[in-house]
TrEMBL record:
PANTHER family: HTH-TYPE TRANSCRIPTIONAL REGULATOR BETI, HTH-TYPE TRANSCRIPTIONAL REGULATOR RUTR. The keyword Transcription regulation applies. This is TetR/AcrR family transcriptional regulator. SUPFAM superfamilies: Homeodomain-like. Residues 18-78 form the HTH tetR-type domain. GO terms for molecular function: DNA-binding transcription factor activity; transcription cis-regulatory region binding. Residues 41-60 bind DNA. Keywords: DNA-binding, Transcription, Transcription regulation.
Length: 202
């Protein structure tokens, strides 16, 4: 009987832990965007999330670990997006969708990025492994697009990511993204058609 009860409770406990972790990440992101990293404490973050400081420290050993985890979480999402459709014919559309999602992420989180001291082209050590995974997957997409003649031969995926990563203005996000995409798409490709696919991405 005890064993059966434990097996029923375990998924619930895991679910609660995931929910608490998500609440802490959201709370930290909001507070850091508002006041920066220096002027908030672990208690401030826990109070905003509606959990105890003990719960915070069960998930994150330090405030910096929490800040790093916010960035890691975003690059993990980027890595999933960069899987693409695995079709060379669709690679350029997949690239545009990844860059569109990335531009939304960085423009929405502009205040957090600035307050946390994150800089374009600089990757903190904690983020490096998941960033490397994204780079590898995105490079595969780019190679597929280059092989199909959909992107310019001299174009480099690292340049596209760095340029999109510098977008901070929500109002200018779409035209800035369009300018970047138009710069690397091959001349025979309909840029407007490529950009229209980004409007359907979640």
């Amino acid at each position: 009987m005890v064993t059966a009860t434990s097996s029923r409770e375990s998924p619930m406990l895991r679910s609660d832990a995931k929910q608490n972790r998500a609440l802490l990440l959201d709370a930290a992101c909001e507070l850091i965007a508002q006041v920066g990293t220096d002027d908030i404490s672990a208690r401030d973050i826990a109070d905003r999330a509606g959990v105890s400081t003990a719960t915070l420290y069960r998930h994150f050993p330090s405030k910096q670990a929490l800040v790093d985890c916010i960035s890691v979480d975003r690059w993990e999402r980027m890595s999933e997006w960069a899987r693409g459709s695995q079709s060379p014919r669709s690679a350029v559309f997949d690239i545009a969708r990844v860059l569109d999602r990335f531009s939304r992420l960085v423009s929405d989180d502009a205040q957090f990025i600035q307050a946390a001291g994150l800089k374009v082209g600089a990757t903190p050590a904690a983020i490096a492994p998941v960033r490397e995974l994204f780079d590898a997957r995105f490079s595969e997409l780019w190679s597929a697009a280059r092989a199909s003649g959909s992107v310019r031969r001299w174009s480099d995926p690292r340049d596209a990511v760095e340029l999109v990563g510098s977008i901070r203005n929500r109002e200018r996000r779409v035209p800035m993204l369009a300018t970047i995409v138009a710069g690397f798409v091959a001349p025979q490709i309909d840029v407007e058609r490529v950009l229209r696919t980004t409007h359907r991405s979640p």
